[in-house]
């Protein structure tokens, strides 16, 4: 059986905690043991990261650092199949998704932030002085230091390198706490770090759980200089509280309950294709997914029937088989949570247009399966309509006009992503400007240009990452004023 060890100061080590199990969600079988980092291991990882800042890593030129980032992208791509298999085993997600999104994007993040750091300008201001000599101000972009990186399980490599790549590009060092559900690819990346010559201590991985365990040991560690986190809003609050000791900056990419708005002038075929993915892709375990759809009344019945048909067309099964289009949920515990909402919908009198239960998947009785599900008929304050479920399910509500659609979309404490489906250009611009969301997609979903600002409004997060916005978080600007 595989063992995933912690990666500390360039070495793979077991960790002082009791090893825990990693399961394949498609079968429920244990596939690996995971070395569990205790407080002492986190201390050693942070100390190594701090030492590396002033070691060979801190002495590299920008050009040398950029060269290493590109080698990391190449290093992942050179072992693409291993990363792919590891991600699929940890998540059960179909190869069609992991091979097109998770692994290529996981690698591409290093090239994107190599480009960004190569081209970001710095600011200068000339100023007058009473003696006429003048002064020149310029800003230096300095690494923040040791960054604590805490990651979720839904897009493990992609979301981890989304933070590690810009952190390293800016000259920081990192201690990463992957999700306890998905330890594999972060560990494998340690091998790539060593292979391409990243100095010891620059990238460290500590495995374990969150509150009261490895995650909290890391975010509460006094020598962590900033914390970047992607995960649930409640966890974000705990992490923000931990980071407040010592006044450390945080970047929080949190949960959502994202609305989709479909107007009666939308292109039906294109909407169904995009909206179908937004509701069900990755078994609904995408922070940007659409769990509330508002549909203009005139096309409600047609859209509802066709979306339900789409939901029923997914194929469950072996994730390594290209014909499989839907994987299981990540864990038995997460399935319990998702199915509790399926129960609540039924008890609340929802009309179930598709799914609503657990499928029989031939050959995989132990998998954490749920059916893609479409409901309608619940009130806007029902938990199915207000809470992030994080499963392959969505609730449809009719609306009459633009104003009502915007009000319904915005009646949520979250503000991560929205989709708008319309062929009326003026309406698209108008509504996009009024929807409370960090990202609004018009006639598309998950179309990502990695230079753009990414993050949530309201309880969906603090700060923006992506492009130069990541560089703002992972560096500190220091002004130098020179009297001439
Ligand atoms: P989670 O918050 O349960 O866990 C995320 C990570 O935090 C894990 O590594 C966990 O061990 C750690 N953790 C938990 N409690 C902690 C604590 N008190 N201190 C330190 N670390 C702690 O989230 P999850 O279930 O892994 O992921 C799903 C959630 O992530 C959803 O809410 C989803 O919307 C969100 N998400 C958001 C984005 C985004 O970009 N906004 C992207 C992906 C996922």
Describe what this molecule looks like in 3D:
By secondary structure, the protein is α/β, with parallel strands linked by helices. Helix content is 39%, strand content 22%. The chain is built from 16 helices and 23 strands. The strands form six sheets. The protein has a seven-stranded mixed β-sheet with strand order 15-16-17-14-13-19-20, with helices on both faces. Helix 3 crosses helix 7, helix 4 packs across helix 5 and helix 10 (268-280) crosses helix 11 (300-312). It is globular and about 70 Å long. Residues 150-154, 159, 177, 179-180, 209-211, 215-216, 219, 230-232, 235, 238-239, 253-256, 287, 388, 390, 416, 456, 461 line the site of nicotinamide-adenine-dinucleotide. Nicotinamide-adenine-dinucleotide binds at residues 150-154, 159, 177, 179-180, 209-211, 215-216, 219, 230-232, 235, 238-239, 253-256, 287, 388, 390, 416, 456, 461.
């Amino acid at each position: 059986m595989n063992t995933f060890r912690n990666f500390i100061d360039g070495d793979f080590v077991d960790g002082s905690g009791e090893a825990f199990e990693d399961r394949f969600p498609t079968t429920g079988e244990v596939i690996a043991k995971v070395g569990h980092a205790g407080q002492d291991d986190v201390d050693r990882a942070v100390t190594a990261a701090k030492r590396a800042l002033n070691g060979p890593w801190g002495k590299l030129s920008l050009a040398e650092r950029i060269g290493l980032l590109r080698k990391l992208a190449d290093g992942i791509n050179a072992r693409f199949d291993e990363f792919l298999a590891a991600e699929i085993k940890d998540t059960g997600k179909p190869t069609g998704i992991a091979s097109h999104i998770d692994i290529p994007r996981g690698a591409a993040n290093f090239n994107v932030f190599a480009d960004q750091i190569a081209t970001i300008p710095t600011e200068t201001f000339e100023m007058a002085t009473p003696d006429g000599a003048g002064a020149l101000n310029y800003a230096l972009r300095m690494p923040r230091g040791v960054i604590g990186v805490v990651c979720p399980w839904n897009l493990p490599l992609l979301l981890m390198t989304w933070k590690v790549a810009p952190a390293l590009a800016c000259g920081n060092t990192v201690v990463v706490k992957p999700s306890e559900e998905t330890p594999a690819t972060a560990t494998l990346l340690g091998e790539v770090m060593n292979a391409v010559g990243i100095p010891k201590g620059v990238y460290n991985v500590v495995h374990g759980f969150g509150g009261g365990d490895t995650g909290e040991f890391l975010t509460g560690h006094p020598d962590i200089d900033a914390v970047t986190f992607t995960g649930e809003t409640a966890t974000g609050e705990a992490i923000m509280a931990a980071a407040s000791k010592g006044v450390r900056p945080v970047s929080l990419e949190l949960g959502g309950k994202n609305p989709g708005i479909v107007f009666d002038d939308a292109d039906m075929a294109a909407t169904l294709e995009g909206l179908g993915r937004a509701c069900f892709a990755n078994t609904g375990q995408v922070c940007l997914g659409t769990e509330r759809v508002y549909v203009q009344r005139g096309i409600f019945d047609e859209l509802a029937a066709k979306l339900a048909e789409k939901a029923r067309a997914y194929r469950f099964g072996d994730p390594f088989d290209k014909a499989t289009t839907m994987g299981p949920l990540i864990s038995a515990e997460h399935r319990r949570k998702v199915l509790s909402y399926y129960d609540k919908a039924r008890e609340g009198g929802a009309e179930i247009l598709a799914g609503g239960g657990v499928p029989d998947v031939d050959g995989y009785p132990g998998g954490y399966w749920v059916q893609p599900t479409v409901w309608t008929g619940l009130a806007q304050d029902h938990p199915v309509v207000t809470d992030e479920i994080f499963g392959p399910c969505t609730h449809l509500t009719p609306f009459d006009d633009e104003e009502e659609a915007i009000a319904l979309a915005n009646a949520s404490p979250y503000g991560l992503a929205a989709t708008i489906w319309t062929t009326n250009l003026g309406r698209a611009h108008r509504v996009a400007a009024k929807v409370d969301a960090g990202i609004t997609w018009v006639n598309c979903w998950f179309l990502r240009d990695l230079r753009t600002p990414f993050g949530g409004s309201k309880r969906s997060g603090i700060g923006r990452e992506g492009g130069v916005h990541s560089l703002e978080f992972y560096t500190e600007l220091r002004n130098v004023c020179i009297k001439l």
